[in-house]
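Problem: given the chain below (155 residues), write out its structure.
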Amino acid sequence: MKVPPARQSAGVDKQVGAFIDKFDATVARQIRSIRKALRRRLPGAIEMVYDNYNFFVIGYGPNERASEAVLSLVAQAKGVSVCFIQGARLSDPLGVLSGSGKQTRFLRLENAKSLAQAEVEALIQAALELGKTPMPGTNGYTVVKSVSAKQRPRR
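Solution.
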């Protein structure tokens, strides 16, 4: 079931919290801490939330167009990753990114502190520079873009 987008409000925060609560406590803590760190790092980004069949995803972009998202927080029962949408175009001399597709690469994260590592920060900065539209500096918000009625187990 696809729901119409809902912009940032107490209701949206509650809805996103309910999506995260579907995960076991450890993964839910990871999601919340990594999301908080990404929001701090990208205060002007629009968070586009998708509670899909395979994954819970929060895309970060300069507007509500998913095609302009720069990176995403991706969660499943096994853990949390950051997905770099144009990851194949990023310089990764230390080989921290995983994946072999034509476009995206990902990095599995244990916690939010991983985002502060120099090599990860360099990848985030490079991804922002590859974006079509500059990321706004402030006033980001959250919008729920879709919710799948049927989902893989989150625990």
